[in-house]
Amino acid sequence: MSQSIQRAIEILEYVSAQPRTPSEVGAHFKIHRSTALRTLQTLTESGLTRRREDGRYGVGYRLAGLANLALEQFDLANIAHPYLQELGRRCGHTVHLAAVQGRSIVYADKIEQPGMVRLYSQIGHPVTIHTSGVGKAILAYQPPEFVEHMLDGTDFSRYTSTTITSREQFLEQLGQVVEQGYAVDDGEYEDFVNCVAMPLREATGQVIGAVSITALKARATMDDLSELLPALRTTTTTISEELGWRP
Q1: 74-242: which CATH topology?
Q2: Within the chain, where are the H helices?
């Protein structure tokens, strides 16, 4: 990928998070303001960004339209979405959908409840493998070579006191996931957030994704989330059956 295209993609992602001025873009990427402005103007001419009245650049209407069109191509997200919404309504917490994408795992959908604190996760972004419930719920059912490939790119950085920091400990936990049928994130990325997660299967029985219920610990302890496992299991089973899986 050429350097200019790579920079344009990075700038597009940066202003998608929140509107930025050309000076902010230049400072963030350590490039001259005029270079940042030219890139933003090119993106704006293509409709991917737009210049606001305050001089900042944000997401363009064409990009929003392309995103909606792209969602229609992802069968898993389309099929799962209404069930995720219902699960979120019933449990009152954030619901995530993660999916295998090539040799990575990414967030494919996210249902947040009105008035709740927004969590760090973003649709389209990769999960932090060794700290996420959805990552564990997916990898626990993958072939050993796939797991090894994924872990080769994992540095097992410590984020909290409960973060798994070794390959051996992580593989041991994957075994526990298979035994109990669900995975947990016990404050392993942010110590004030926890979750439970279960796998999704397609017609052949292969695990292609996972659904999690994520909550602030102040609102739900791990014991509280454990009481939601039957509802989570109903959701993952229903979505899997929609994808053609039969127990």
Answers
A1: Beta-Lactamase (3.30.450)
A2: 3-17, 22-29, 33-45, 61-71, 75-91, 133-139, 144-152, 167-180, 222-226, 229-242
- The pLDDT value recorded for residue 246 is 82
- pTM of the prediction? 0.72
Rounded to whole angstroms, the Cα distance separating 185 from 207 reads 19
- The answer to whether 49 touches 63, Cβ cutoff 8 Å, is yes
Output the CA–CA distances (angstroms, integers) from residue 113 to 97, 116, 121, 148, 214, in the order listed.
15, 6, 14, 36, 11
Provide the Cα torsion 95, 100, 101, 103; round to 10°: 140
What tokens were used for 193?
Answer: 């957030």
Interval 67-80: pLDDT, tens: 766 655 557 888 99
Q: How far is CA 81 from CA 71, 84, 99, 184, 236, in A?
A: 11, 5, 13, 22, 12
CATH 1.20.950.20 fits 3-68, yes or no: no
- What is the 3-state composition of the chain as percent helix, strand, coil, each rounded to the nearest 5? 45, 20, 35
Residues 6+ apart with CB under 8 A from 39: 4, 7, 8, 11, 25
Range(s) within the chain of domains with CATH label 3.30.450.40: 74-242
Question: Considering only CA atoms, which of 211, 102, 192, 187 is closest in space to residue 153?
Answer: 102
Containing H/E element for 50?
strand 49-51
